Amino acid sequence: MRSRPGLSARLKLTLSYAGFLAVAGALLLAVVWMFLLRYVPDNSQGLLGVSPNRYLLVRTFAPAAALAMAFLLVFGLVGGWILAGRMLAPLTRITDAARRAGSGSLSHRIRMEGRRDEFRELSDAFDTMLEQLESHVTEQRRFAANASHELRTPLAISRALLDVARKDPTRDRDELIERLHAANARAIGLTEALLLLSRSDRGTFVRAGVDLSLLAEEAAETLLPLAEERRINLDVTGTATRTSGSAELLLRMVTNLVQNAVVHNLRGGTVTVHTEARPDASVLRVENTGRPVPPELVPTLTEPFQRGTERARTGDHAGVGLGLAIVHSVVRAHDGTLDLTPRAEGGLVATVRLPGGPS
Protein backbone atom coordinates (compact mmCIF):
# COMPACT_ATOMS: atom_id res chain seq x y z
CA MET A 1 0.00 0.00 0.00
CA ARG A 2 1.53 3.31 -1.13
CA SER A 3 1.50 6.26 1.25
CA ARG A 4 1.73 9.96 0.49
CA PRO A 5 5.25 11.42 0.36
CA GLY A 6 6.29 13.31 3.47
CA LEU A 7 9.24 15.23 4.79
CA SER A 8 12.60 13.52 4.57
CA ALA A 9 14.39 12.43 7.72
CA ARG A 10 17.15 14.94 7.00
CA LEU A 11 14.67 17.83 6.77
CA LYS A 12 12.92 16.70 9.92
CA LEU A 13 16.20 16.60 11.82
CA THR A 14 17.15 20.03 10.42
CA LEU A 15 13.89 21.57 11.58
CA SER A 16 14.33 19.88 14.94
CA TYR A 17 17.82 21.34 15.38
CA ALA A 18 16.69 24.83 14.32
CA GLY A 19 13.63 24.68 16.54
CA PHE A 20 15.72 23.56 19.49
CA LEU A 21 18.11 26.50 19.02
CA ALA A 22 15.22 28.94 18.67
CA VAL A 23 13.56 27.68 21.85
CA ALA A 24 16.87 27.80 23.71
CA GLY A 25 17.44 31.41 22.56
CA ALA A 26 13.93 32.43 23.59
CA LEU A 27 14.41 30.86 27.01
CA LEU A 28 17.70 32.72 27.40
CA LEU A 29 16.04 36.06 26.57
CA ALA A 30 13.23 35.29 28.98
CA VAL A 31 15.75 34.60 31.73
CA VAL A 32 17.51 37.90 30.99
CA TRP A 33 14.21 39.76 31.18
CA MET A 34 13.09 38.06 34.36
CA PHE A 35 16.31 38.30 36.34
CA LEU A 36 17.85 41.52 34.97
CA LEU A 37 15.57 44.01 33.27
CA ARG A 38 12.71 43.64 35.71
CA TYR A 39 14.93 45.07 38.50
CA VAL A 40 15.93 48.17 36.51
CA PRO A 41 13.88 51.25 37.64
CA ASP A 42 11.32 52.47 35.16
CA ASN A 43 11.67 56.25 35.76
CA SER A 44 13.34 59.18 34.11
CA GLN A 45 16.29 59.24 36.54
CA GLY A 46 17.29 55.58 36.24
CA LEU A 47 19.25 53.86 39.02
CA LEU A 48 20.89 56.42 41.41
CA GLY A 49 20.49 59.03 38.70
CA VAL A 50 23.30 57.68 36.54
CA SER A 51 22.04 54.35 35.02
CA PRO A 52 19.63 54.20 32.07
CA ASN A 53 16.06 53.33 32.83
CA ARG A 54 14.16 50.20 31.72
CA TYR A 55 12.65 51.93 28.69
CA LEU A 56 16.04 52.81 27.22
CA LEU A 57 17.43 49.33 27.93
CA VAL A 58 14.48 47.66 26.27
CA ARG A 59 14.79 49.85 23.18
CA THR A 60 18.51 49.07 23.00
CA PHE A 61 18.19 45.33 23.86
CA ALA A 62 15.21 44.39 21.69
CA PRO A 63 16.83 44.89 18.23
CA ALA A 64 19.95 43.03 19.31
CA ALA A 65 17.84 40.18 20.72
CA ALA A 66 15.81 39.96 17.50
CA LEU A 67 19.00 39.87 15.43
CA ALA A 68 20.43 37.15 17.69
CA MET A 69 17.24 35.08 17.33
CA ALA A 70 17.36 35.39 13.54
CA PHE A 71 21.01 34.35 13.56
CA LEU A 72 20.23 31.34 15.76
CA LEU A 73 17.41 30.31 13.44
CA VAL A 74 19.56 30.56 10.30
CA PHE A 75 22.50 28.91 12.05
CA GLY A 76 20.23 26.11 13.25
CA LEU A 77 18.86 25.48 9.76
CA VAL A 78 22.24 25.48 8.02
CA GLY A 79 24.10 23.64 10.76
CA GLY A 80 21.25 21.19 11.26
CA TRP A 81 21.16 20.42 7.54
CA ILE A 82 24.90 19.69 7.51
CA LEU A 83 24.85 17.67 10.74
CA ALA A 84 21.80 15.67 9.64
CA GLY A 85 23.52 14.87 6.35
CA ARG A 86 26.61 13.60 8.13
CA MET A 87 24.56 11.59 10.60
CA LEU A 88 22.38 10.00 7.92
CA ALA A 89 25.20 9.25 5.46
CA PRO A 90 25.54 5.61 6.70
CA LEU A 91 21.78 5.17 6.31
CA THR A 92 22.05 6.36 2.71
CA ARG A 93 24.69 3.68 2.01
CA ILE A 94 22.45 1.02 3.55
CA THR A 95 19.49 2.23 1.48
CA ASP A 96 21.54 2.07 -1.72
CA ALA A 97 22.64 -1.46 -0.87
CA ALA A 98 19.02 -2.46 -0.20
CA ARG A 99 17.95 -1.07 -3.58
CA ARG A 100 20.73 -2.99 -5.33
CA ALA A 101 19.69 -6.16 -3.52
CA GLY A 102 16.08 -5.53 -4.54
CA SER A 103 17.16 -5.35 -8.18
CA GLY A 104 18.82 -8.75 -7.92
CA SER A 105 22.42 -7.86 -7.06
CA LEU A 106 23.26 -9.82 -3.91
CA SER A 107 27.05 -9.67 -4.19
CA HIS A 108 27.28 -6.06 -2.99
CA ARG A 109 28.41 -5.46 0.61
CA ILE A 110 28.37 -2.23 2.63
CA ARG A 111 31.44 -2.95 4.79
CA MET A 112 31.06 0.23 6.81
CA GLU A 113 34.18 1.54 8.49
CA GLY A 114 34.56 3.37 11.77
CA ARG A 115 33.72 2.61 15.36
CA ARG A 116 30.82 0.41 16.29
CA ASP A 117 27.54 2.29 16.71
CA GLU A 118 23.89 1.71 15.79
CA PHE A 119 24.51 2.30 12.07
CA ARG A 120 27.57 0.06 12.07
CA GLU A 121 25.59 -2.74 13.73
CA LEU A 122 22.76 -2.29 11.21
CA SER A 123 25.29 -2.38 8.36
CA ASP A 124 26.95 -5.54 9.64
CA ALA A 125 23.57 -7.22 10.13
CA PHE A 126 22.56 -6.25 6.59
CA ASP A 127 25.83 -7.61 5.17
CA THR A 128 25.28 -10.88 7.02
CA MET A 129 21.74 -11.11 5.67
CA LEU A 130 22.97 -10.47 2.12
CA GLU A 131 25.65 -13.13 2.49
CA GLN A 132 23.17 -15.74 3.72
CA LEU A 133 20.63 -14.76 1.07
CA GLU A 134 23.22 -14.98 -1.71
CA SER A 135 24.35 -18.38 -0.45
CA HIS A 136 20.76 -19.61 -0.27
CA VAL A 137 19.90 -18.35 -3.76
CA THR A 138 23.07 -19.87 -5.20
CA GLU A 139 22.29 -23.18 -3.52
CA GLN A 140 18.72 -23.14 -4.81
CA ARG A 141 19.87 -22.38 -8.35
CA ARG A 142 22.41 -25.18 -8.24
CA PHE A 143 19.80 -27.52 -6.78
CA ALA A 144 17.29 -26.62 -9.51
CA ALA A 145 19.90 -27.17 -12.21
CA ASN A 146 20.91 -30.52 -10.74
CA ALA A 147 17.29 -31.58 -10.30
CA SER A 148 16.43 -30.76 -13.91
CA HIS A 149 19.51 -32.64 -15.06
CA GLU A 150 18.68 -35.68 -12.95
CA LEU A 151 15.05 -35.73 -14.08
CA ARG A 152 16.06 -35.38 -17.73
CA THR A 153 17.91 -38.72 -17.67
CA PRO A 154 14.99 -41.07 -16.80
CA LEU A 155 12.62 -39.08 -19.00
CA ALA A 156 15.03 -39.34 -21.93
CA ILE A 157 15.38 -43.08 -21.31
CA SER A 158 11.61 -43.49 -21.27
CA ARG A 159 11.27 -41.57 -24.52
CA ALA A 160 13.99 -43.64 -26.18
CA LEU A 161 12.35 -46.88 -25.07
CA LEU A 162 8.98 -45.75 -26.39
CA ASP A 163 10.57 -44.80 -29.70
CA VAL A 164 12.18 -48.23 -29.92
CA ALA A 165 8.89 -49.95 -29.16
CA ARG A 166 7.11 -47.92 -31.84
CA LYS A 167 9.75 -48.41 -34.55
CA ASP A 168 10.59 -52.06 -33.81
CA PRO A 169 7.44 -54.08 -33.00
CA THR A 170 9.45 -57.30 -32.97
CA ARG A 171 11.54 -56.13 -29.99
CA ASP A 172 11.18 -58.09 -26.77
CA ARG A 173 8.23 -56.33 -25.14
CA ASP A 174 8.88 -57.68 -21.65
CA GLU A 175 12.41 -56.28 -21.64
CA LEU A 176 11.17 -52.86 -22.82
CA ILE A 177 8.46 -52.81 -20.17
CA GLU A 178 10.93 -53.75 -17.46
CA ARG A 179 13.39 -51.03 -18.48
CA LEU A 180 10.59 -48.51 -18.82
CA HIS A 181 9.31 -49.43 -15.37
CA ALA A 182 12.80 -48.95 -13.90
CA ALA A 183 13.16 -45.52 -15.54
CA ASN A 184 9.74 -44.41 -14.31
CA ALA A 185 10.43 -45.72 -10.81
CA ARG A 186 13.65 -43.70 -10.75
CA ALA A 187 11.81 -40.55 -11.87
CA ILE A 188 9.07 -41.08 -9.28
CA GLY A 189 11.61 -41.72 -6.52
CA LEU A 190 13.53 -38.60 -7.44
CA THR A 191 10.36 -36.48 -7.47
CA GLU A 192 9.25 -37.79 -4.08
CA ALA A 193 12.71 -37.14 -2.67
CA LEU A 194 12.63 -33.57 -4.01
CA LEU A 195 9.22 -32.94 -2.45
CA LEU A 196 10.37 -34.35 0.87
CA LEU A 197 13.52 -32.24 0.77
CA SER A 198 11.49 -29.13 0.02
CA ARG A 199 9.08 -29.89 2.86
CA SER A 200 11.84 -30.37 5.39
CA ASP A 201 13.58 -27.17 4.22
CA ARG A 202 10.38 -25.17 4.79
CA GLY A 203 9.90 -26.65 8.26
CA THR A 204 6.13 -27.00 7.71
CA PHE A 205 5.39 -29.90 10.05
CA VAL A 206 3.74 -30.48 13.40
CA ARG A 207 6.03 -31.38 16.28
CA ALA A 208 5.23 -34.22 18.66
CA GLY A 209 7.09 -36.55 20.98
CA VAL A 210 9.11 -39.17 19.08
CA ASP A 211 11.25 -42.10 20.28
CA LEU A 212 14.31 -42.50 18.06
CA SER A 213 14.88 -46.06 19.27
CA LEU A 214 11.50 -47.15 17.91
CA LEU A 215 12.22 -45.42 14.60
CA ALA A 216 15.58 -47.19 14.42
CA GLU A 217 13.93 -50.56 14.95
CA GLU A 218 11.28 -49.81 12.31
CA ALA A 219 13.89 -48.70 9.78
CA ALA A 220 16.03 -51.77 10.47
CA GLU A 221 13.03 -54.07 10.05
CA THR A 222 12.16 -52.42 6.72
CA LEU A 223 15.71 -52.72 5.38
CA LEU A 224 16.44 -56.16 6.80
CA PRO A 225 15.72 -57.97 3.45
CA LEU A 226 18.23 -55.70 1.69
CA ALA A 227 20.80 -56.33 4.41
CA GLU A 228 20.25 -60.10 4.24
CA GLU A 229 20.59 -60.01 0.46
CA ARG A 230 24.00 -58.39 0.83
CA ARG A 231 24.87 -60.63 3.81
CA ILE A 232 25.25 -57.64 6.10
CA ASN A 233 24.74 -57.94 9.84
CA LEU A 234 22.28 -55.21 10.91
CA ASP A 235 22.26 -54.55 14.66
CA VAL A 236 20.15 -52.04 16.64
CA THR A 237 21.20 -51.15 20.18
CA GLY A 238 20.53 -48.47 22.76
CA THR A 239 17.74 -47.25 24.99
CA ALA A 240 14.64 -45.11 24.61
CA THR A 241 15.68 -41.74 23.16
CA ARG A 242 13.00 -39.08 23.11
CA THR A 243 12.95 -35.96 20.95
CA SER A 244 10.37 -33.61 19.50
CA GLY A 245 9.54 -33.36 15.82
CA SER A 246 7.80 -34.97 12.87
CA ALA A 247 7.68 -38.75 13.19
CA GLU A 248 7.42 -39.13 9.39
CA LEU A 249 10.43 -36.96 8.62
CA LEU A 250 12.52 -38.45 11.42
CA LEU A 251 11.67 -41.95 10.22
CA ARG A 252 12.82 -41.01 6.72
CA MET A 253 16.01 -39.60 8.23
CA VAL A 254 16.78 -42.84 10.09
CA THR A 255 15.79 -44.98 7.08
CA ASN A 256 18.07 -43.02 4.77
CA LEU A 257 20.98 -43.33 7.17
CA VAL A 258 20.52 -47.08 7.58
CA GLN A 259 19.98 -47.61 3.85
CA ASN A 260 23.07 -45.55 3.08
CA ALA A 261 25.05 -47.68 5.56
CA VAL A 262 23.78 -50.90 3.96
CA VAL A 263 24.24 -49.88 0.32
CA HIS A 264 27.67 -48.29 0.79
CA ASN A 265 29.12 -51.35 2.47
CA LEU A 266 31.08 -54.48 1.71
CA ARG A 267 29.41 -57.81 1.25
CA GLY A 268 29.44 -59.54 4.62
CA GLY A 269 29.96 -56.25 6.49
CA THR A 270 28.14 -54.83 9.51
CA VAL A 271 25.82 -51.91 10.29
CA THR A 272 25.26 -50.76 13.87
CA VAL A 273 22.45 -48.39 14.81
CA HIS A 274 22.70 -47.00 18.34
CA THR A 275 20.41 -44.58 20.18
CA GLU A 276 21.34 -42.82 23.39
CA ALA A 277 19.64 -40.21 25.58
CA ARG A 278 22.18 -37.74 26.94
CA PRO A 279 21.55 -34.84 29.32
CA ASP A 280 22.14 -32.28 26.59
CA ALA A 281 20.85 -34.11 23.49
CA SER A 282 19.26 -37.19 21.99
CA VAL A 283 21.84 -39.05 19.91
CA LEU A 284 21.43 -41.45 17.00
CA ARG A 285 24.59 -43.08 15.64
CA VAL A 286 24.77 -45.23 12.50
CA GLU A 287 28.12 -46.94 11.86
CA ASN A 288 29.03 -49.21 8.98
CA THR A 289 31.98 -51.02 7.56
CA GLY A 290 33.13 -50.53 4.01
CA ARG A 291 35.93 -49.16 1.93
CA PRO A 292 37.86 -46.15 3.22
CA VAL A 293 36.17 -42.81 2.61
CA PRO A 294 38.52 -39.96 1.60
CA PRO A 295 38.25 -37.11 4.15
CA GLU A 296 37.92 -34.51 1.38
CA LEU A 297 34.82 -36.35 0.12
CA VAL A 298 32.93 -36.12 3.42
CA PRO A 299 31.84 -32.42 3.24
CA THR A 300 30.21 -33.03 -0.17
CA LEU A 301 28.12 -36.03 0.92
CA THR A 302 25.26 -33.89 2.27
CA GLU A 303 25.01 -31.80 -0.90
CA PRO A 304 22.14 -32.72 -3.24
CA PHE A 305 23.03 -35.12 -6.05
CA GLN A 306 26.55 -35.70 -4.69
CA ARG A 307 27.22 -39.44 -4.68
CA GLY A 308 30.14 -41.12 -2.99
CA THR A 309 31.28 -42.92 -6.12
CA GLU A 310 34.44 -44.16 -4.52
CA ARG A 311 32.49 -46.31 -2.06
CA ALA A 312 31.08 -49.74 -2.76
CA ARG A 313 27.53 -49.86 -4.12
CA THR A 314 25.20 -52.12 -6.06
CA GLY A 315 23.69 -51.19 -9.39
CA ASP A 316 20.16 -51.82 -8.10
CA HIS A 317 20.53 -49.23 -5.35
CA ALA A 318 22.57 -46.49 -6.97
CA GLY A 319 20.16 -43.86 -5.64
CA VAL A 320 19.71 -40.31 -6.84
CA GLY A 321 22.18 -38.54 -4.58
CA LEU A 322 19.58 -37.14 -2.17
CA GLY A 323 19.80 -39.60 0.74
CA LEU A 324 22.19 -37.70 3.00
CA ALA A 325 20.93 -34.36 1.67
CA ILE A 326 17.48 -35.23 3.01
CA VAL A 327 19.02 -36.39 6.29
CA HIS A 328 20.90 -33.11 6.66
CA SER A 329 17.78 -31.09 5.83
CA VAL A 330 15.61 -32.99 8.32
CA VAL A 331 18.21 -32.67 11.07
CA ARG A 332 18.57 -28.95 10.42
CA ALA A 333 14.79 -28.48 10.45
CA HIS A 334 14.70 -30.16 13.89
CA ASP A 335 17.44 -27.86 15.27
CA GLY A 336 19.97 -30.67 15.38
CA THR A 337 23.42 -31.42 13.99
CA LEU A 338 24.78 -34.12 11.68
CA ASP A 339 28.40 -35.27 11.92
CA LEU A 340 29.96 -37.60 9.34
CA THR A 341 33.28 -39.16 10.34
CA PRO A 342 35.25 -41.68 8.24
CA ARG A 343 36.37 -44.82 10.07
CA ALA A 344 40.06 -45.66 9.97
CA GLU A 345 39.20 -49.27 9.06
CA GLY A 346 36.79 -48.15 6.33
CA GLY A 347 33.20 -47.06 6.33
CA LEU A 348 31.47 -44.10 7.92
CA VAL A 349 30.05 -43.02 11.27
CA ALA A 350 26.97 -40.76 11.05
CA THR A 351 26.03 -39.09 14.34
CA VAL A 352 22.78 -37.14 14.71
CA ARG A 353 22.23 -34.94 17.76
CA LEU A 354 18.73 -33.63 18.36
CA PRO A 355 17.22 -31.67 21.24
CA GLY A 356 15.87 -33.93 23.95
CA GLY A 357 12.12 -34.38 24.16
CA PRO A 358 9.70 -35.00 27.06
CA SER A 359 10.12 -38.30 28.84
3D structure, described in words:
The longest helix has 50 residues, at 118-167. Helix content is 56%, strand content 12%. With 359 residues, it is α+β, with helices and mostly antiparallel strands. α1 (9-35) runs antiparallel to α2 (54-102), α2 packs parallel to α3 and α3 (118-167) runs antiparallel to α4 (173-202). β6 (337-342) and β7 (348-354) form a beta hairpin. The model is unreliable at 309-317 (pLDDT under 50). It contains seven helices and seven strands, in the order ααααβαββαββαββ. The strands form two sheets. A five-stranded mixed β-sheet has the order 2-4-5-7-6, covered by helices on one side. The protein has helices at 9-35, 54-102, 118-167, 173-202, 212-229, 247-263, 323-333, and strands at 208-211, 233-238, 242-245, 270-277, 282-288, 337-342, 348-354.
**Portion in helices:** 55-70%
Q: Give the beta-strand count.
A: 7
Secondary structural class: alpha+beta
- Order of adjacent strands in the largest pleated sheet: 2-4-5-7-6
Number of helices: 7
Descriptive labels:
7 strands, 56% helix, 7 helices, five-stranded mixed β-sheet, two-stranded antiparallel ribbon, alpha+beta
How is the topology of this model organized?
Blueprint: H1 9-35, H2 54-102, H3 118-167, H4 173-202, E1 208-211, H5 212-229, E2 233-238, E3 242-245, H6 247-263, E4 270-277, E5 282-288, H7 323-333, E6 337-342, E7 348-354
Parallel strand pairs: 2-4
Antiparallel strand pairs: 1-3, 4-5, 5-7, 6-7
